[in-house]
UniProtKB/TrEMBL annotation:
Entry superkingdom: Eukaryota
UniProt xrefs under Pfam families: Peptidase_C15 (PF01470)
EC number of this enzyme: 3.4.19.3
GO cellular component: cytosol
Gene Ontology molecular function, alphabetical: pyroglutamyl-peptidase activity
Protein name: Pyroglutamyl-peptidase I
Subunit relationships: Monomer.
Active site location: 148
Primary location class: cytoplasm
Family: Belongs to the peptidase C15 family.
Residues forming coiled coils: none
BP-aspect Gene Ontology terms: proteolysis
Amino acid sequence: MDARKTVVVTGFEPFGEHKVNASWVAVQELEKLGLGRDINLFVKEIPVEYKAVQTLLPSLWKQHQPQLMVHVGVSGMATTVTLEQCGHNHGYTRPDNSAFCPSSQCCIDKGPDCLLSAIDMELVCKRVNSSSLGVTVSVSEDAGRYLCDYTYYVSLYQGERRCAFVHVPPLEKPYSAEDLGRALKAILREMLKILEEQAEHKDNCKHEH
């Protein structure tokens, strides 16, 4: 039996003005670096399409059963690497790459309005920013009500919130592909540490009662 942990990381295909999607480039850089010998890393490029997300994400969770799934997207407004704390269920009015938009304008029918990641993004941010990474990390609570937010919500719903979303700026604005790959590696290692700490805390609480 493989004792290593499994992490799945996704990036998006090109869309709109993003002829090269920095998110997928950053994920490919992360794949080159790896997350260490104790982690099985799987990467996947996701279409910028609502229907594709609805079918792809449940199959990724089922197939890999990861300890953590992290989705990476690009934000033209971002100048830092941004950790998203929550995904939103409603407000999807922007057509995707195939000119489709969900008629319900929501991710999951009758799902909660907002789902929070099990990971404390402020803590991840603090730890990464106090290292000598050279890439600034910030936290947001609005992933933008497009495919990024949509993907995050669907994944949080599927994966019992063991999930994160990271927005990266476009390439060279200000970070290179290599910088973004290094940043993702540092961020994911911290996220895994935090999930481990939470699991240990739960075990300790159980033994105390």
